[in-house]
Design goal:
heterodimer, A: 229 residues, mainly alpha, Growth Hormone, Chain: A, 68% helix, 0% strand, B: 624 residues, alpha+beta, Immunoglobulin-like, 5-stranded antiparallel sheet, 4-stranded antiparallel sheet, 13 helices
Amino acid sequence: MDNKGWSLKGSLLPLLLLVSELLLGQSVASLPICPTGAVSCQVSLRDLFDRAVILSHYIHNLSSEMFNEFDKRYAQGRGFITKAINSCHTSSLSTPEDKEQAQQIHHEDLLNLILRVLRSWNDPLYHLVTEVRGMQEAPDSILSRAIEIEEQNRRLLEGMEKIVGQVHPGVKENEVYSVWSGLPSLQMADEDTRLFAFYNLLHCLRRDSHKIDNYLKLLKCRIVYDSNC
Amino acid sequence: MKESVASTAVFILLLFLNTSLLNGQSPPGKPEIFKCRSPEKETFTCWWKPGEDGGLPTNYTLMYHKEGETITHECPDYITSGPNSCYFNKKHTSIWTMYIITINATNQMGSSSSDPRYVDVTYIVEPDPPVNLTLELKQPEDKKPYLWMKWYPPTLVDVRSGWLTLQYEIRLKPEKATEWETHFAGQQTQFKILSLYPGHKYLVQVRCKPDHGFWSEWSPESSIQIPNDVTMKDTIVWIFVAVLSAVICLIMVAAVALKGHSMVTCILPPVPGPKIKGFDAHLLEKGKSEELLSALGCQDFPPTSDCEDLLVEFLEVDDSEDQQLMPAHSKHPDQDMKPTPLDPDSDSGRGSCDSPSFLSKKCEEARANPSTCNIPEGIEKPENPQTKVTCTWDAQSTRLEGKIPYFPADGSKSSTWPLPQPPSQHSPRSSYHNIADVCKLAVGTAGASAALLGKTDAHALRSSKTTETGGEEKAAERREVESFHSKTDQGTAWLLPLEKTPLISVKPLDYVEIHKVNKDGALSLLPKHKENSNQPEKPSPPEASKEYAKVSRVMDNNILVLVQDPRAQNLAALEEPAKEAPPSLQENPAEEDLASFTSAPSSCGLQLGGLDYLDPTCFMHSFQ
């Protein structure tokens, strides 16, 4: 499974990059990508954003598929949706709720917000992988996606930190993020409770990954293309 | 008092309900929200389906509350999106928030509520189709023309800020075609089509999809006519070419018609037929292959003797009176019996049926049913180049009577089968073609006894098989011989069933004792009912001398003339206890006769490649 994830990852990212280049239909006049081990290397902001958007888009796709699969397989007729109200651990982070709010917020703040959300998901994703593995007859599709999401999330975080370093360097904010305390629920013996915990986690992941993707695309169009995507 | 009021109220209520029922009025049925959609992720609309209205004007209200709030709101706009809809404008729309929406239907009779519907605007985005689709046929010089199309994103969608990212898809087809040709265009808003059919009218459509949403509807069709690319100049050229070729064809036809055959011959010379020197096709037609092939200089077709190589050697039969020859082997064992003179100097292949196992196998088969025996292969007797013989068990070919095949007492030995034919025999002499025939002959003789004899022959023949079933056959043999014995008189000759392989045998073979020896020295044999204690079964190499008994001939249809084969002792024998049979012979009073016989084979026998072959003439002399 890991091998598949790794190989997927290894082949996917360059492919995604290529695809994104084609899709944008613009010649990307940018510095070459930094080889590993290079000491001083400047990747253009455009490239960084392109890569970040690709990653965030991919992560949301995975989350969406994972949620749909879980919902179809385990959550039918259990009425989980009625209970998954206001139950995400990241709701404490004040994120914009519509386009106007998102456009009013300053891009630095928005970037920091993205970072916070990403950091808030490090822990839950790690435990998600562990717990899904331990789940009885955990389907391959869910587990593989969970592993992939965890990996990509980490890379996106690194990329975002690079972007922040370029957009407003020098300011290193304290690592603020929401603490996730849903682990005991994931490990409950009662099947219904445990399944709802999974459902809720995947539901929140789907939502937050969409938020990140949306914010990044807004930022990209705003910063790189000057609001003229 | 109160009770009376209450009861009155109930009564009135019941009356009222009854009245309404009688009128066909009822509270409204349950409505249902069937679709919610956002065209640009900034507003959204929900539509519902009313239930039965119960015959009364029904009022529908949409109530909702948002995730994280406790206040319930009513739909802000029932109009904009049409009947039975609720439009949430930008102010009332929050993304990444769950809406819990319910419809209430109320009429005079009562009300009902729909099931709550959970809506998150994030996941219900379905934009309008792209707009302003334009088609243009571009014809660069010296290049093929292509179709260039351009469109714009739907007006409501905000792509410039990146709020939504759209991907497009176009499809086109010639007007008359049934299948659309679809192309994915990515995020670009233009597209080129290069492969076009000239002279056709094309229809084109485009649609779009947000990055995490649903495909829009197809835009209205745009059409364009592709002009024919055949110019006037080309047409003239083609017409000229066509006329020219028509003229040439006419000329050719005329020439052919006039000149006729000679022209054709000139143009298309006749194809020479195949010719083989000396080959006369007529002969072939008549089917006289021999003549035909002789004309070709081919000989021996179809091959007759080549098969001998495969089939080892033949048994030759000489049906001259005093010659007891084995039937020559041939592949066509039935009626086609050709007597072949005994050739003492050459290996006439006698012994092809010599292998007792071989023979016995065959005779066994023959006994089972008249059928063709296969050539058993791989009969290994190192010292004897065994030859194999096709054994056909053709009942019809039974001619010889009283012919009992010569069978070796020692399984290891394969011997020829001189078929003794008593001079008194006037039965038709016919050559045998194989052991089966011989067997048959034996069977055919003298009716039942002969038949039995034949059967026992089969057993006898089988005796020297190296690998054979043991006990059962022996038992069968025993039974047969016994029955034989019971049926026949003393005139019947007894066969000496030979030992079967002891390797797996359980019971010994039947032994025969020499019942008597007549003046001629013929041994009449009796089956041994008891195991010969004197000859325990020994799977050891054959002992010296006298163990091996050969049937030299059969006399009078039922007398088996046995001779000893002194060569038996020399053979590195099988482990078969076939020696038991010979020892039984030893005990017999005819031993002295045997002894006299002993000498005979040595002088008469011709050892050919390990095959024992006895010249019957010798025996005749010795007997006479």
